[in-house]
């Protein structure tokens, strides 16, 4: 029997590939920036529901945030959005497999 982390890892990888492939076909109708906006706005309600569940049902409190943490969070979010735009733009230049290989390459 598979351990649960193996199942969840395979499911997450599959869903990430499906999401990325969906974005490749979405750019036929809208720009890479629009496809990126769809990607992040689609997840926003799920994040809000999860945060609400943590705060109300689980009794978790939000820790105090300092300015350095907020600055790092904004910078990381901005860079993630830029990287997503570049990924989607790459799909317009090459095929899905080549684009997926490029984004999985780490230096």
Compact summary:
With 107 residues, the chain is mainly α. 79% of the residues lie in helices and 0% in strands.
Provide structural commentary:
The protein is mainly alpha-helical and about 110 residues long. The chain has one domain (about 5-105). Helices cover about 80% and strands about 0% of the residues. It is built from 4 helices and no strands. The protein has helices spanning about 5-25, 30-55, 65-95, 95-105. The longest helix has 27 residues, at about 65-95. It starts with a helix and ends with a helix.
Descriptive terms for the model:
mainly alpha, 79% helix
Q: Terminal Cα separation, in Å? A: 35 Å
Strand content: under 5%
User: Total domains, how many?
Assistant: 1
Order of helices and strands: HHHH
| Helix percentage | over 70%
Mean pLDDT: 84
Question: What is the helix tally?
Answer: 4
Radius of gyration based on Cα positions = 17 Å
What is the number of strand segments? 0
Contiguous uncertain segments of 5+ residues: none
Major pleated sheet: none
| Shape call | globular
Oligomeric status of the shown chains?
single chain
Q: Helix/strand/pairing class, anyone?
A: mainly alpha
């Amino acid at each position: 029997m598979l351990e649960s982390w193996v199942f969840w890892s395979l499911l997450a990888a599959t869903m990430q590939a499906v999401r990325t492939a969906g974005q490749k076909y979405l750019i036929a109708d809208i720009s890479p920036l629009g496809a990126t906006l769809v990607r992040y706005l689609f997840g926003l309600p799920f994040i809000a529901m999860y945060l609400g569940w943590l705060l109300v049902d689980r009794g978790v409190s939000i820790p105090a945030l300092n300015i350095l943490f907020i600055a790092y969070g904004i910078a990381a979010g901005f860079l993630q959005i830029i990287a997503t735009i570049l990924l989607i733009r790459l799909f317009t230049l090459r095929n899905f497999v080549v684009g997926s290989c490029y984004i999985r390459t780490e230096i």
